[in-house]
């Protein structure tokens, strides 16, 4: 894994952890996320929240 890939991988983990904390603290966001029916809906919703988790770590 290149340094860039490692950095992107760790960044994605950090964003996922932030999303996990966000939904723990905000029931309405947790509900919105739980209502997503597929991966694309999750990516769209979380991007509205300011996160970029749609790409795999090697695709940046």
Key terms:
68% helix, mainly alpha, 60 residues, elongated
Gist?
The protein is mainly α. It is 68% helix and 0% strand. It has helices spanning 3-25, 27-34, 39-48.
Radius of gyration: 12 Å
Summarize model confidence as the mean pLDDT.
92
Give a quick account of the main beta sheet: strands, pairing sense, barrel closure. Answer: none
Helix content: 55-70%
Distinct helical segment count: 3
* Secondary-structure class: mainly alpha
Strand and helix order: HHH
Number of strands: 0
Poorly predicted spans: none
What is the distance, rounded to the nearest whole angstrom, between the alpha carbons of the first and last residues?
13 Å
Categorize the overall geometry: elongated
Strand content: under 5%
What does this structure look like?
By secondary structure, the chain is mainly α. The chain contains three helices and no strands.
Topology:
Layout: H1 3-25, H2 27-34, H3 39-48
Helix pairs in contact: 1-2
């Amino acid at each position: 894994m290149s340094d860039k890939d490692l950095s992107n991988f760790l960044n994605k983990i950090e964003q996922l952890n932030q999303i996990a904390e966000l939904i723990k603290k905000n029931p309405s966001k947790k509900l919105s996320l739980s209502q997503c029916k597929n991966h694309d809906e999750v990516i769209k919703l979380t991007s509205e929240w300011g996160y970029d988790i749609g790409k795999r770590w090697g695709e940046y």
